[in-house]
Design brief:
Pfam families: PqiA (PF04403). This protein has 446 residues and is of the alpha+beta class. Helices cover 52% and strands 13% of the residues.
Length: 446
């Protein structure tokens, strides 16, 4: 009996998930605790989590190629609108200014803050555009049934781009900026502002729609795990490691450099010199945090009189204006988050060095929180970028960036890098693998 032919417009990769095309067990090593588990069959909307630490190993979406590609195209269109029309305008006493999105970066460069300006434009427009184009390129090839050129390299770069895309953080910064000047001038939101809001939402939806497990299976298949790989044990104890990019379990030849057999990512049993690099980055961030709070982050000129404000000073001004919610946002993003992240990562490093075996799950959760919240500290940098570009009314009213903008931006970047260089598997290495979960064979799915 002949098998019915697949419809041309029904891609094989969408109609048959990996579980339906591979009969053998598909093994994964958790990126956060190194525990090896077998992925269970997943339905649309389900995800598999590590039974030891709860880290998500895989999640399944319905029609992943069509969904992510449609969202990426829509997001690119919204970004095109955002960069093609006026972003926001203000006027005071008949004098005003109107800016486009790109001016939030170019104005900083004109004020001799090129590093801050480059960070702004890269995080809100350039890197997101590269990410969206990469998604479209990948999914277009998969929908055609034949991956396009450089698909593997592009797919490998997606996970590295995601943390540095901050369109959603920029929106919060824009709202804070507008609230700060709403009582001093008339504000008019342009088409670009609303287009960028739509873009930020669509970009977030695109990143959430990527089914990495399905994508890598469709691109490169599912090579067999090394022989005698056991679930319910760590990969390191079996001289194995899970690829940090595609998730495939690979053998680690002793004393040799190795790459993943599926995506060609560099492999290490643990991130090289993880603690040393994390401590170095934390030290640099701590040093930069001092000038970030001592020096002014911006200088405001009004009717010929100039006044500088630090981060804490800006929070105090917002409180005096009665903008308690905005003051709370700035205080949390600019003080609580960076200080908390420095303390949390330092504590994790100390706990690993002391081989403390208690509360591994709590420490892993703390690591996830520090990794997630770090980017939100960029709110203050974006506030400066918007206000400096917008408030250009000569001696009547103008704002210039201060040296603290670069220092604080450096703190944000350094703490993000510190979280990336810290290997959470070291938390579990400090304890013995005796406390195993009740079911070692299959991770939890829900």
């Amino acid at each position: 009996m002949k098998r019915p032919a697949l419809l041309v417009n029904t891609p094989l990769v969408d109609s048959l998930p990996p579980e339906a095309r591979v009969q053998r067990r598909r093994l994964r090593a958790c990126h956060e605790c190194d525990w090896i588990s077998a992925l269970p069959p997943l339905g649309s909307g389900e995800k598999a989590s590590c039974p030891r630490c709860g880290h998500v190993l895989a999640k399944r979406h319905r029609y992943p190629a069509q969904r992510s590609m449609a969202l990426a195209i829509a997001a690119l269109i919204a970004l095109l609108v955002a960069v093609s029309f006026p972003f926001v305008s203000f006027s005071v006493s008949g004098v005003g200014n109107r800016i486009e999105l790109s001016q939030t970066a170019t104005t900083l460069i004109a004020f001799h803050q090129p590093i801050v300006g480059i960070i702004v434009i890269m995080t809100i427009a350039v890197l997101p555009a590269v990410y969206l184009l990469s998604v479209i390129w990948l999914q277009l090839g998969l929908l055609r049934g034949k991956p396009l050129y450089f698909s593997r390299d592009i797919a490998r770069s997606l996970a590295h781009l995601t943390p540095w895309m901050m369109a959603d953080v920029f929106i919060i910064g824009a709202l804070v900026s507008l609230i700060k000047i709403a009582g001093m001038a008339e504000i008019e939101l342009g088409v670009s502002f609303w287009g960028f809001c739509v873009f930020a939402v669509l970009l977030l939806m695109t990143t959430q729609s990527i089914d990495a497990d399905w994508m890598w299976f469709s691109l490169e298949g599912e090579p067999r795990a090394p022989e005698n790989t056991q679930t319910g044990a760590t990969a390191a104890s079996q001289r194995l490691t899970g690829c940090p990019t595609c998730g495939l379990i690979n053998a680690l030849p002793p004393g040799q450099k190795s790459r993943c057999t599926r995506c060609h990512e560099k492999l290490h049993p643990r991130l090289p010199n993880s603690l040393q690099r994390t401590w170095a980055l934390l030290g640099a961030a701590t040093i930069m945090y001092i000038p970030a709070n001592v020096y002014p982050i911006m200088t405001t000129t009004s009717l010929g009189h100039s006044g500088s404000s630090t981060i804490i000073g800006g929070v105090a001004e917002l409180i005096q204006m009665g903008s308690w919610p905005v003051a709370a946002v700035i205080f949390v993003a600019s003080v609580i988050v960076p200080v908390g992240k420095l303390l949390a990562l330092s504590w994790l490093c100390i706990a690993v060095q002391r081989s403390d075996r208690s509360n591994n799950i709590s420490r892993t959760k703390l690591y996830r929180i520090t990794e997630f919240i770090g980017r939100w500290s960029m709110v203050d940098v974006f506030v400066v970028a918007i206000l400096v570009a917008l408030i250009r009314a000569g001696s009547l009213m103008s704002i210039t960036p201060g040296p603290a903008a670069l220092a604080f931006g450096s703190v944000v970047v350094l703490t993000m890098l510190a979280a990336m260089t810290f290997d959470p598997r070291l938390i579990w290495d400090a304890s013995k693998a005796a406390a195993s979960p009740s079911d070692h064979s299959h991770p939890g799915s829900h």
